[in-house]
Amino acid sequence: MNRYPSTETNPTHKMGFVGLAGAPNVGKSTLVNRLVGQKISIVSDRPQTTRERLCGIRSDATMQMALVDIPGILEPRDAFNTALMETAAQSLKDCDIILHLRDARRPGDPADPPVRAMIRRTKRPVWLVWNKIDRVPGKMFPAEGEGLDYVKVLGISAKTGRGVGALVDALREALPVGPPLFDEDQLSDRDLRFLAAEMVREKLFRYLGEEIPYALATFTDIFDEDRGEKIYIGITILTEREAHKPIIIGKGGAMLKKIGQAARAEIENLCQRPVYLDLRVKVHPRWRKDIQQLLELGLKPSISS
Ligand SMILES: Nc1nc2c(ncn2[C@@H]2O[C@H](COP(=O)(O)OP(=O)(O)OP(=O)(O)O)[C@@H](O)[C@H]2O)c(=O)[nH]1
Ligand SMILES: [Mg+2]
Fold first, then answer.
1. Domain with 261 in it: what CATH number?
2. pLDDT at 179 exceeding the cut of 50
3. Which of 20, 100, 211, 220 could form a disulfide with 28 if both were Cys (CB 3.0 to 4.6 A apart)?
4. How many Å apart are CA 305 and CA 292, to the nearest integer?
């Protein structure tokens, strides 16, 4: 139920889709979490953390924004990346405003040109948002567009929140009038099964070595709210390689336990209920191919990849 008045009672209520476009690792998911006010999108210090489109939803009395978080845009190297980039481009085309997020420490970032190329193709209004300004205090930022005609240029820190209030105010001005599309207490357009699997994937990024997380996918098999006080969640970690299995499990199961404990805390936060988390590791050499085929068919992957 929406507690907030719709356009019937509030003709100035705003509703819009805001796309976050940027190179990998610029802080798109961190900004989505900051704007939503809760961690719903996973974050890591390594590039290509986000793999699937996810909407964060922010609602207040005067506005609802759907914040479209997509994978970092890059020149696709293989069929899997190509499928991800096509979904990303499609998602941006549906947005009212695109925020071109860039790392303020790297104005000449060589990773940015593919981002600009994708944004140009969308023909949507675009704002330049320099992120991570906490790392470059007191600096003024260039507004060069190289083919993009920026409507606005802002500096923010998604991490500390600096400048984010001004960004919200500017979006409130600019978004179209419309009734809310989502329930006012809904924080994301993805279900808890997906988000739970994502939280496990985040911990895999945190605790495993450089390369392994990229060979892994996570998938919720069981999400049972009726087994007692705790929600019973069974999640499978899929790996492309047999050799990864003992590393993920660790000595005497220690690594899997550490990953499970950290993920459980995040999932309990999301579910607002105690959770029993059951993690399994399975070798599935073709998971990437399976997801790619689903994406090509225009289907949402059933695997939290
Ligand atoms: N100092 C600083 N670090 C930030 C800021 N925003 C994000 N980060 C860090 O940058 C890293 C990447 O953040 P993410 O939010 O995962 O970046 P992303 O753009 O979603 O990355 P992909 O999903 O891989 O495309 C993390 O280590 C964040 O903590 C910021 O404003 N300041
Ligand atoms: Mg991300």
1. 3.30.300.20
2. yes
3. 20
4. 10
Q: Sort residue 48 into left (φ over 0), alpha (ψ -120 to 50) or beta.
A: left
Q: Which amino acid makes up residue 89?
A: A
Query: pTM above 0.85?
Result: yes
Assess if residue 179 is contained within a domain: no
The boundaries of the domain holding residue 207 are 192-296
How much is the pLDDT for 305? 41
**Cα–ligand 2 centroid distance for 48 (angstroms):** 7
Is 1 within a domain? no
Does residue 114 lie within any of the structural domains?
A: yes
Q: Which residues contact 154 (CB under 8 A, 6 or more apart)?
A: 127, 128, 129, 130, 163, 166, 167, 170
| Predicted pLDDT of residue 70 | 95
Give phi and psi for 22, each to the nearest 5: 180, 170
Residue with tokens 């924004």: 65
Burial 28-66 (b: 16+ CB within 10 A, else e): bbbbbbbbbeebbbbbbeeebbbbbbbbbbbbeeebbbb
The per-residue pLDDT for range 85-112, each reduced to its tens digit, is 988 999 999 999 999 999 999 988 999 9
Do residue 88 and residue 152 come from a single domain? yes
Q: In testing the pocket of ligand 1, which one of 43, 54, 92, 164 has its CB within 8 Å of the most ligand atoms?
A: 43
Average pLDDT score, the chain:
91
303 pLDDT tier (thresholds 50, 70, 90): very low
Beta-bridge mates of residue 98: 19, 126
93 lines ligand 1 (CB under 6 A): no
Q: In 3D, which of 39, 36, 35, 58 has the Cα closest to residue 49?
A: 39
One domain for residues 162 and 277? no
CA nearest to 263, candidates 218, 216, 211: 218
